Amino acid sequence: MTYDIVIVGAGGGGMYAALEAIRRNPALKIAVISKVYPTRSHTSAAQGGVNAALANKHKDDTIDLHIFDTIKGSDYLGDQDSITYLCEQAPILIRELENLGAPFSRLEDGSIAQRPFGGASRHRCCYCADKTGHTVLQTLFEQCMRYGIQFFNEYYLLSIEENDGKCQGVIALNLRDSKIHKFEANSVILATGGYAKMYWHKSSNAAGLTGDGGAAALRAGIPLKDMEFVQFHPTGLRKSGLLVTEGARGEGGYLINNKGERFMSKYAPEKMELGPRDLVSRSIEIEIREGLGFESTAGQFIKLDLTHLGAELIMQRLPQIRELCIYFEGVDPILEPIPVRPTAHYSMGGIDVNTSCETNIEGIYAVGEGACVSVHGANRLGGNSLLDILVFGKRAGMEVVERASKSGQPKISDSQVEDQQKYIDGLFGKTHHERYDVIREELGTTLGENAGIYRTKDALTKGVADVYELRERFKKVKVADHSRLFNTNLMQVMELGSMLDLALCVAKGALAREESRGSHSRIDFPTRDDKNWHKHSIFKMTAEGDIAVSDKPVTMGKHELQERTY
Amino acid sequence: MEDRKQITFNVLCFNPEVDEKAYFKSYDVVLEKGITVLRALNYIKDHVDQTLTHRFFCQAGICGSCAIRINGVSKLACTTQVWDELETCKTKDQIIVEPLNNFKVIRDLVVDIDPMIAKLKKYKSWVVPMVKDEDLGKKECDVKPEEFEPINAATDCILCASCYSECTITEADRHYISPLVILRAYRMNMDTRDTAGEERTRLLQEDHGIWDCTHCYRCVEACVKNIPIMEAIQGVRHETFERGMTNTAGARHAKIFLDDVKGGGRLKEATLPLRTLGPIGMIGMIPFALKMGAKGRVPPIFPHKVSTHREVKTLVEQVEKESKKKD
Ligand SMILES: Cc1cc2nc3c(=O)[nH]c(=O)nc-3n(C[C@H](O)[C@H](O)[C@H](O)COP(=O)(O)OP(=O)(O)OC[C@H]3O[C@@H](n4cnc5c(N)ncnc54)[C@H](O)[C@@H]3O)c2cc1C
Ligand code: SF4
Ligand code: SF4
Ligand code: FES
Fold first, then answer.
1. Could you say which of A277, A403, A513, A517 is catalytic?
2. Sheet hosting strand B4-13, strand order edge to edge
3. Helices A12-24, A384-404: inter-axial angle, 10-degree rounding
4. Which of A107, A220, A425, A523 has the most CB atoms around it within 10 Å of its CB?
C-alpha cells in the first residue's frame, strides 16, 4: 500500500505527529504502525508530569528560565537551538493538549496546576495526579480516533527503505499472521521509543523498549547520537526495578540511609532530595558502596520515606505509587518506608536528527525518546521528555505535511520485501540452539555491571567484549515457536537483536568518552572535559555490521559553558 | 528464607492453526512468594514452553495489555500476586489461567480487542472541544477543581477490557455498548470542555446502549482500577432525562424501576420486561431471556427486600426532589 505519511510508533510522539498532520491536511493518507495498541505504549507509564513555563503557580517563571534549567541540566551537551524551540513551544503545546481534553489537575482558580520537579528552578511541572503520561496518551488516542487516523496495531517494523538517499517507506510484519507488508511512503516518522530495557531487570522500562527503531535506522545507514547517555532513575523498587516517581520526592519524601540520615544533605545541600536525577542516583550508589545501604536478598537498597506525609496526602496525590508499592513490593508507603535503588530509566541518545526532526535521509524523520534532537544532552530533566515527544511530534507532523505536497512516487521493490522474508526465515534456522532469555539476561547483567552508573575503562572494555560475544551467540539463537499466529517468541528474538546492536553503541560510546558529564560518570575521568569532549558522539553501522564511533559539534547559543552545581 | 512452593498453572491454550478446540495445558513450576502471575507466565515461556502466547508490556499495571482470567476472574496478570491466588484455587495449588471472555481468541491468552475499539469509535469516545481549531493552544480553559473531580476517576481507565470480559450483557449481546465504553461516554459528557454531549447521549440511549445494562455490578467488581462504573451508568442515564430523551423502552423502564425501588427496595426484575415492553414487545425478549436462563442468570421471581430499603427509598426521594428543583 502507498501512503503520504507512515508513522512508526503510536506513543505520545507518534500520535501527536499524526494528529498535527491530519489536522493540517485532512486529505492526507496516513498510516500509524505500532507493535502494541496505541494506549499501551510506554508513554502511559510517565507518572510525574510535563514541564511548561505557564507561570500558573510561580508567577515569576519564564521561558528563559526553563531554557536555562534545561541547558544546565543537559550538562551543556544539549543543542541550544532545539532547547529554545522546546521551551518556547511548551506553553502552547500544553494549552493545546488541554484544549483537546487532557485532564490536567487544577489550581483553585481553574488553571492548570504545577508542581516542583527535579532540576527545575520553579514549580513548572503540569500533571494529572500521578497518571500524567497515561491521560496524555489516552487523550491523543481519543483525538486520533476522532480524526479517523488509520492504525496498524501489532505490526512490527522490520526495515526502513530508502533509495538514493530518499525515503521509500517501511516494511513491517503483522504479528497476527506473520505476513510481511510494505508501506510505501515519501515520508516516514520514526517514533519507536527508548532503549533502556537493555539493562533488563535493572530497568523501569516496558518489555518492548528495545530500540527497534534505532536498530532499523542503523541498518538503513542512519546514524545514532549520544547513545552512551542513559539515565538511571534514583528510585526504582528494589525487586522489580519499577519506578517510584519523582513526584514522591516532589511532595516531600525523604531519602534515608541505614543511619537514618537524610544523606542528600551531603551532596545537594540546597535542593536535597530534589536535585537532578543523575546526582541523586550517584549519591545513592555512593551511600550503598560505602556500606550505608540496607541489605536484602534482592540486593542492597536505601529507603524512600513518605510516612510523615500522612495517609490523606498520599492517597490523594500519589495513589498509583502507593498501589505500585503494595502490588510489586508488598510495602504500604503510608505505613513504612519504600525500599529503592537506582534503575535504568531513560535513553538520552537516539536517532540523530536536527531541530526539524530530519535524519540524513530525505523524508525520514525521528521523534520522541527514540530520537536525539538533542534537547536532553547528557541528562534529561524530569518532565522534559513528555514535553520533547509532544513538541517534536508536532514539529515532525508539520514538516511531513509540507513535504507531502512536493515529492514523487515512492517504491519498495519485491526483492526488498524478499530480503525481509529471508531474514525472518533465517531466524527459524534448524541448527540454532542459543537461548534468547539467557542472552538477554547476560546482556542486562554485563551492562549493569560494566556500563551502569559508575564506569571505568576496564569495566567498559569488558562490557564491549561481552556484547560482541553475545552478538556472535545471537546468530545461533533459537526460535522454538514455529507458528505463524501471534508469534511472540519470534518478536522477542527480534527485539533482542535490536538491543544487542544498540548495547554495542552504548558500551562503545561510554568507553570512548573519557570524561564525566551528566549521566555518564567515569571513575577514571571524574570531571567534565570541555576541551576534548564537548561534542556529540555519532554511531554508524559499517558494512560488516560493526559499530563505528565518531563525533559532531554541539550547537551553542547565548548560554556559555559553566560548571554545573546544584 | 522466602517461601517456595510447587504450583501448577492450568492454561487454556488454543492455536487455531492446529487445534480444533481449546484445551488446558499444565505447567508445574517452583516459585517463590512475592511473584506475580505475569512473572510466572514469563518464566514458563522462557524456561518451559516458548509457544505459550500472552500479551504484556509495562509490567506495571498501567498499559492494560496483560488482562486475562485467573481462577475465573478477569484481572491484570502483572498486578496479581500468585500467593493471593492460591487462596481461591479450586484444587490446591492449581491456578487456572484463561483468556478474557467475550472476545475472539487469536491464540492462547491473546484475544482480538478490535470490537472494543470499534465501540469506542461508535460512541464518539473523545472530547469535541469547545475551543475552535484555529484557537487551539492560545489559552487554557477554566476548569475548577470541583468540575474536574467527577471525571478524575473515569480517566483512570486503562482499556484493559476486564470489565468487558465480565459483563453479562456483553456476553449475551456482542453489540452491547459494554461498561468501559459507557464509562468513557460519561467521562466525556461530564467534561466542561466538551460540546458533543447531546449527540453522544442520543447514541447511548439507542438499542444496545445504556438501557440494556442489568446492574449486575460485575463490571464494578472486576474493574482493575476500582472505578465506580455504576456511577457512570447511572450518570448517563440521568442525562438522557435531563436532555428530554424519555421515549425509549429504557427510559420507561427506568421510571418503573423508580416506582419499584420505592415500593420494595429491590427490583421485581422477573416481571419488569413485561411492564416496559408490553406483552408484544416481550416476545422480542424471549431469545435473550433464554440465553440468560441458560447461563443461570435469570433473576429470582420473588426478590427479597433488601435490608437497606429505607435508605434506598430516601435516596430515591432525594433524587426526585433534586431533579424537580432543576425543572
Ligand atoms: C516509568 C517511567 C516514568 C516516566 N515519567 C516521566 C515523567 O514524569 N515526565 C516525563 O516527561 N517523562 C517521563 N518518562 C519518559 C517518557 O514517558 C518517555 O520518554 C516518552 O513517553 C516516550 O514517548 P515516545 O512516544 O517516544 O515512545 P513510547 O511511548 O515508548 O512509544 C513507542 C511506540 O513505538 C512502537 N514501537 C516500538 N518498536 C516498534 C517496532 N519494532 N515496530 C512497530 N512499532 C514499534 C511502540 O509500539 C509504541 O507505540 C517516564 C518514563 C518511564 C519509563
Ligand atoms: S452492571 Fe451493566 S455494564 Fe456492568 S457488567 Fe453488569 S450488565 Fe454489564
Ligand atoms: S473500566 Fe476498569 S476494568 Fe474496564 S477497561 Fe477500564 S480499567 Fe479496565
Ligand atoms: S503488562 Fe501492562 S498492565 Fe500488565
1. A277
2. B23-32, B4-13, B94-98, B67-70, B73-76
3. 40
4. A220
Residues of chain B with CATH 1.10.1060.10: 121-206+220-242
> How does residue A323 score in pLDDT terms, banded at 50, 70 and 90?
confident
A345 is in an annotated binding site: yes
| DSSP single-letter state for residue B228 | -
Give the B window 121-150 contacts with A, CB below 8 Å: 121, 124-129, 131, 133, 135-145, 147-148
A201, A204, A324, A486, best to mutate vs chain B, most B CBs in 10 Å = A486
Residue A75 · residue A513 · CB < 8 Å: no
Q: Residue A390 and residue B321: Cα distance in Å, rounded?
A: 47
Point out the residue among A36, A44, A106 whose CB comes nearest to the CB of B145.
Answer: A106
Q: Rounded CA gap, A314 and A457, in Å? A: 44
Hey, of B48, B57, B227, which one would you mutate to test binding to chain A, going by the most A CBs within 10 A of its CB? Answer: B57
* A157 Cβ contact list (under 8 Å, min separation 6): A8, A33, A35, A170, A171, A172, A192, A212, A213, A216
> Which amino acid would we find at residue A413?
S
H-only helix segments in B77-196: 82-86, 114-122, 145-152, 162-166, 168-172, 179-189
Cell of A17: 505527529
| Percent of chain A topping pLDDT 70 | 99
All three cell numbers of A543, joined, read 558494512
Name residue B92's beta-bridge partners: none
What CATH number was assigned to the domain covering residues B121-206+220-242?
Answer: 1.10.1060.10
A37, A153 contact by CB (below 8 A): yes
Shortest CA distance to A224 belongs to which of A208, A212, A209?
Answer: A212
- Length of chain B equals 327
Catalytic annotation present for A322 = no
* Residues from chain B contacting residue A129 (CB–CB below 8 Å): 152
What does the domain layout of chain A look like in residue ranges?
234-342, 414-531
Chain B residues close to A110, C-beta within 8 Å: 142-145, 147
Say if residues A477 and A492 touch (Cβ distance below 8 Å).
Answer: no
Fold of the domain spanning A234-342: Flavocytochrome C3; Chain A, domain 1 (3.90.700)
Q: What interface predicted TM-score (ipTM) does this complex get?
A: 0.92
Q: Is the pLDDT of residue B284 over 70?
A: no
Q: Domain B4-111 belongs to what topology?
A: Ubiquitin-like (UB roll) (3.10.20)
Residue position matching grid coordinates 515457536 = A481
Q: How far is the CA of B56 from the centre of ligand 4 (A)?
A: 5
d(CA B177, CA A140): 22
Q: Decide: pTM greater than 0.80.
A: yes
* Residue A463 neighbours by CB under 8 Å, 6+ apart: A446, A447, A449, A450, A451, A507, A510, A511
pLDDT tens column, A324-372: 888 888 789 999 999 998 899 999 999 999 999 999 999 999 999 999 9
Question: One-letter amino acid identity for B255?
Answer: K
Specify the fold of A414-531: Methane Monooxygenase Hydroxylase; Chain G, domain 1 (1.20.58)
Pocket of ligand 3 (CB under 6 A): B 157-163, 180, 183, 222-225, 227, 229
pLDDT tens readout for residues B101-146: 999 999 999 999 999 999 999 999 999 999 999 999 999 999 999 9
Tell me how far apart the alpha carbons of residues B92 and B77 are, in angstroms, rounded to a whole number. 20
| Residue B174, C-beta contacts closer than 8 angstroms, at least 6 positions apart | B102, B115
